[in-house]
Write a structure and sequence with these properties.
The chain is α+β, with helices and mostly antiparallel strands. The chain is 36% helix and 20% strand. It has a five-stranded antiparallel beta sheet with strand order 1-5-4-3-2. Helix 1 crosses helix 2.
Length: 128
Amino acid sequence: MQTASAGQIRALMRAFRALIRPDGADGRVLDLTVHVSDRDPGTPAGLDEAQRDVAAAVQAELGEPVRTDAWEHARTAWDIASGGRVVVQRLESVVIVLRSQEVADLERGEERLGIDSGRIPGTGREAL
């Protein structure tokens, strides 16, 4: 079972910064997800460990996170200078998600309104 190394995560963070720009250019990436662990989803402890390891590596690059959620799909988030957001999340694998400023602004607005970050629109779990 593999999880991305700290060096690989640093390289990924540099690539993310190059992809997301707050300049309003057409065709830019709004949301990019990269799977950074191939731990077996049947071993929750392994996924938890991978999520902690990846979050620690991102924290070493970006500093303290702005949000940590421990709901069904645990995640840790950092706001970045472009206005975007980097999220480490535990799904069926561990992923790093880079959100553009527009998507991050929507997410921050939902947080201010107290909307559950675990809700999944269209699945019957939309309740505020």
